[in-house]
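Let us work through a complete example step by step.
Step 1: write down the sequence.
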Amino acid sequence: MTLNGFDDIERAIRRGWGADTTTPAHRPDWTPDNPARDQCGVTALVVHDLLGGELIRGEVHVDGERVDYHWWNRLGLGIEVDLTREQFGPEEIVVGGDVIDRPTEIVRLREEYELLRDRVVAALRP
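Step 2: predict the structure and record it as tokens.
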């Protein structure tokens, strides 16, 4: 994969985000001003579909307390790809990062993942 190829994937993913691909509980709070908000799980799965590697999960802390999890990818040679890192405000700190096995069946956010995946695949077709 060339750098331009990865740029195409990143662009397709970012264009594919919407309120309908975010976590349903957070959907009312999603805005185009912060399109990466609550897109990390579905985005990490789509990147994994396209590029393989490992899924990484860390914890999001505010004032030292875990408030959520954050997902991203680690590709070959240990290169980490996190297309949703900018979603966080200065008070939200991502801690840790453990390799997580890909679920054999996507249950949580399955519809959102499939929607984003289908948009990205369509955008990448020649």
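Step 3: interpret the result. Residues 3-124 form one domain.
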